[in-house]
Amino acid sequence: MTDIPQPDHPPMEWANAVSTRPSLEGAVKDVVEQLKHRLTGAPDLGIVFISSSFTSEFARLLPLLHDLLPIPALVGCSGGGIVGMDDQGHPQELEDTPALSLTLARLPGVTVRSFHLSSDDLPDLDSPPNAWSELMGVAPEANPQFILMADPFSSNVTDLLQGLDFAYPSGVKIGGLASVDGFNRHSGLFCDRTLHTEGAVGVALAGPIVLDTIVAQGCRPIGPVYRVDKAERNILLSLSDPEDSDSARPPLELLQELFETLPEGDRQLAQSSLFIGMAQDSFKLSLNPGDFLIRTLLGVDPKMGAIAVGDRLRPGQRVQFHLRDAHTSATDLEALLQRYQQQTPVAIAPVGALMFSCMGRGAGLYNQANFDSGLFAQYLPGLPIGGFFCGGEIGPVGQTTFLHGFTSVFGICRQP
């Protein structure tokens, strides 16, 4: 681990550059050259994302970077697609081409702690919070914010997120699962001067820093909100009207009735893109789309009328069926960006952002390049952004951090 306390300095600075040069040396030189004069001093943090196309050269990336630019804390991973700023200051999503994205940040007064964790390092989930804070080397009172990248096969990422939420309940955690190439299923995780192929890497940021989040799950609700009347683990057995506990019925029966009321386009969409949203706030009276955690429907039991869901359910929880398509994904993200723009004071200007997007989004979903990042830039113009296309996205819904799918998670960095 690297622990770097920062002295007082002028305001935060954040810059990103991307390169599509086919040689790794050329790409590294290109991004470093672009970034040389964009910060007023040496960076405190570097975040690097590299295409899976460079898999055979992952071991050379960190030495090449450190030879050209001293970066005291450097983390990152491989991605199926790479996000970064072109030389005109516009975001690019580079999905099917070799690419390298490097973000550099000066973070005055912020303690920057980079880390690598293997699955064997993680405390048991029954351990007290201090077991997790001792592992991370950051006191809970410091209220750190976390940026995480994990190997999709060996990271035990759900346990990691639960443990970090337990130890640091008010700290934001964002990130994604590294993508792998289609041949040997190898991912690359980078921490300071070391390449890792398993576990998780990341950085804890403590001090005068805020990570705002936008978690766009790309779904729209259909039908009414129901209350879970009976459930066993992830099996939904009966649903009722939230205002009438005596109205409990099998969920499959209610879903079939809902299906009959849908317009033809939604009926067709429901054949392949039907999900369930699980409200995360038990007390909020009026639920918005961002208040639901979207999970898949795994199967049905026609005899019992039960539905299997891709997460645990609890009696009393409110749920609502959802649909997902390109138009809905775009509308959902735009609504969240509008809300962020309206709620963020003009005086608190963000300095930079990270984007963690599902490989199921991008041009394959929208039939258009740079859609999510371009929409982001419409609402936060000129903000440097870097990121990658993930095998799973990490971000909060309500007060809890989850591993998502088909989602775009944005972390927006600003001073308090």
Describe this structure in words.
This protein is α+β, with helices and mostly antiparallel strands. It has two domains: 291 residues, no CATH class; 90 residues, no CATH class. 22% of the residues lie in helices and 38% in strands. It contains nine helices and 26 strands. Strands 1-8-13-9-10-24-25 form a seven-stranded mixed beta sheet, covered by helices on one side. Strands 2-7-3-4-11-12 form a six-stranded mixed beta sheet, with helices on one face. A six-stranded mixed beta sheet has the order 6-5-23-22-26-14, covered by helices on one side. Strand 15 and strand 16 form a beta hairpin. Helix 3 crosses helix 4. The longest helix has 18 residues. The radius of gyration is 22 Å and the shape is globular. The mean pLDDT is 92.
Alpha carbon gyration radius: 22 Å
- Shape verdict: globular
Strand order, largest beta sheet: 1-8-13-9-10-24-25
What class, by secondary structure content?
alpha+beta
Beta content comes to 35-45%
Q: How far apart are the first and last residues' alpha carbons, in Å?
A: 26 Å
Membrane topology: Multi-pass membrane protein
Pfam families: FIST, FIST_C
Subcellular location: Cell membrane
Domain FIST: 42-243
Task: Give a brief description.
It comes from Phormidium tenue NIES-30. The protein is of the alpha+beta class and 416 residues long.
Which terms summarize this structure?
22% helix, single chain, transmembrane, alpha+beta, 416 residues
